[in-house]
Design brief:
The longest helix has 7 residues, at 79-85. With 193 residues, the chain is mainly beta. It has one helix spanning 79-85; strands at residues 14-18, 31-36, 39-43, 48-52, 57-62, 68-75, 90-92, 99-101, 105-106, 109-110, 126-132, 140-150, 165-173, 181-184. Strands 1, 2, 3, 6, 11, 12, 13 and 14 form an eight-stranded antiparallel beta sheet that branches.
Amino acid sequence: MATGNVARVIRAPGTIHLDPLNVSGPAFGGVEAGKVQSIAFAQQGTEFEIENEGLGEITEVLEGENRFAVSFFARGFDDDAVEKLLASNYALGAVSGHAMMQQIKTSGEIHLGSNVPGASTMPRSVRVLFVPDDTIHVQALLLYRCIPTFTEGAEILLQRKEELGLPITLRCLRDANGNTYQMGRLSDLSLAP
């Protein structure tokens, strides 16, 4: 993540669902993007401290920005996950029919998809639902609108020692109704609170 210290609040295996149609499984609709071992939720806003110069101490603390990011490692290289999470570089393999990621030169032009510096990322925003394997004791997480990207500094390792997967960070935004996220038991979450 782009932040320094990140407290992992959900450290349990579960499943990521993209653009779910409901939160009352077992079928959530949308796209199942695969299994994750843990998911990190971070508030990136910082409180503002006001110091009283006469006392030499902090006398007030103002609320910080409402910025949130979620990161996880999606196990494997699922076609649907690549298409939904990395849409700007997604292509369909002409022979295999499986997902590809690319940034190539075609017909004399650089192919960048929608990943052009300065272009809006809103067309590739997704709703994300994390469903823990243990829905009784572990919190679920619903993100109403977020922009997926590779986790800063992360790598896709194509080797025997490390598991293949997609290191993803989600930048959380408000949806059209003003909702950003809900975290709690799956039975308490709602797509339209």
